[in-house]
Design goal:
single chain; 396 residues; Aspartate Aminotransferase, domain 1; Aspartate Aminotransferase, domain 2; seven-stranded mixed sheet; four-stranded antiparallel sheet; 12 helices; 15% strand; binds pyridoxal-5'-phosphate
Length: 396
């Protein structure tokens, strides 16, 4: 009889978004036609920008004519897009060559698939609270996981602990769910730790485009020494509204190798075996993001979300609640008032002001007592949610 991958039995049920939707359903059954203010979603609400739409239309037209038709694309990405992404880094002073860029269908796919490059005996370190896929993808592969809790005392940006042995290290900056961003010094400590221990950092830069402070790093490759210890995984989902369109990229430097094996070469071999590339249409659409016009337009959309963040942060300041994030990230991570638990606070907001957020406990044990607001909603809803928050909590 075939033996299933028994590691799946180690996965905990993913209650977070299921529980949220069940609670909302029950509330709406009791209170039909009530308007809800959804500050919990991690999905964007603005459409793709004009430059991308135009390129997608052009790409469809190309596919209709024999002279411009594209069949299979190169597995690691179209040269025009790999070059555009490398230039995007070079313009920020980060030297990346096109053959270090791998075009993907999104960061989620890569965060799991990239584990193919590492032996199952490796230990994976996950800084918590964390994006749930890191833990689950490693559990599916049967890897041992070390959970490193972070908290208010270190601004949810923990330092490496020399007593903890970790081979693979996930770092998400700007962070989902906390919105915290590693400074150069803090990131350098992790790069040094990884180089000293022979570890590899998987740097999730899905929210890099939300960084406003000039001195914060957008890429781990801005840190000296990162080329020998890091892989960067990025996505156009939040940067350019590609959540439903699907496009991302992964950077693997040529210098990154262990035991005489080059991870860049291994990933070329992996992609050429396991994929047939991302569609031409999406890659042409994605390339438009990196044109001056595309950059200008996506920044306009990001600014809408940043204004939402400002509105929510002003409300929390008025109430006097501790929070981090929001300034350089599309998430605000706040401490539940009055010592409430994160699900308790969820119910409190839903029942009293119909505002929905995400309970911090869903991102790891140390998220209990915290709550996440997303800034991807509409400006109108965000303003009303902020007004209701102040009205409810400001009088305490
Ligand atoms: N990484 C983080 C930290 C995320 O929050 C998300 C999506 O919410 C992803 C990766 C997934 O991105 P993609 O849509 O490219 O799969």
């Amino acid at each position: 009889m075939i033996k299933p991958n028994m590691h799946y039995a180690n996965l905990k049920d993913s209650y977070l978004f299921f529980n949220i939707s069940q609670k909302i359903k029950a509330y709406l059954e009791q209170n039909p036609n009530t308007r809800l203010y959804r500050m919990g979603i991690g999905d964007v609400s603005l459409p793709l920008c004009d430059a991308v739409i135009k390129a997608l239309h052009e790409a469809v037209d190309h596919q209709s004519k024999k002279e411009t038709f594209h069949g299979y694309m190169p597995e690691c990405g179209a040269p025009f897009l790999r070059e555009a992404i490398a230039m995007y880094y070079n313009d920020k002073g980060v030297k990346i060559s096109a053959d270090e860029v791998f075009v993907s269908s999104g960061a989620s796919d890569e965060l799991g698939d990239i584990l193919d490059l590492f032996d199952r005996s490796n230990t994976t370190l996950v800084i918590e609270p964390a994006y749930p896929a890191y833990v689950d993808a490693n559990l599916m592969g049967g890897r041992n996981i070390v959970h490193l809790a972070s908290g208010e005392e270190n601004g949810f940006l923990p330092e490496p602990d020399k007593n903890i042995k970790a081979d693979l290290i996930y770092i998400c900056s700007p962070n989902n769910p906390t919105g915290a961003v590693f400074s150069r010094e803090k990131l350098r400590a992790w790069v040094d730790y990884a180089n000293q221990n022979g570890s590899v950092i998987l740097f999730d830069a899905a929210y890099e485009a939300f960084i406003s402070d000039e001195d914060l790093p957008h890429s781990i490759f801005e840190i000296e020494g990162a080329r020998t210890c890091a892989i960067e995984i990025c996505s156009l989902s939040k940067t350019a509204g590609f959540t439903g369109t699907r496009l991302g990229y992964t950077i693997i430097p040529k210098e990154l190798s262990r035991c005489g094996m080059s991870f860049n070469d291994m990933w070329v071999r992996n992609r050429t075996t396991k994929t047939n590339g991302v569609s031409y249409i999406l890659q042409l659409g994605g390339a438009a993001v990196f044109t001056p016009e595309g950059q200008r337009q996506i920044r306009e959309n990001i600014q809408v979300y940043k204004n939402n963040a400002k509105v929510l942060m002003e409300a929390l300041d008025k109430i006097g609640i501790w929070y981090c994030g929001g300034k350089n990230a599309p998430y605000i991570w706040l401490k539940c008032p009055g010592g409430m638990g994160s699900w308790e606070f969820f119910d409190y907001l839903l029942n009293n002001i119909q505002v929905i957020g995400t309970p911090g406990a869903g991102f790891g044990a140390c998220g209990e007592g915290y709550f996440r607001f997303s800034t991807f909603g509409s400006p109108e809803d965000t303003k009303e949610a902020a007004r209701r928050l102040v009205e409810l909590l400001g009088k305490k």
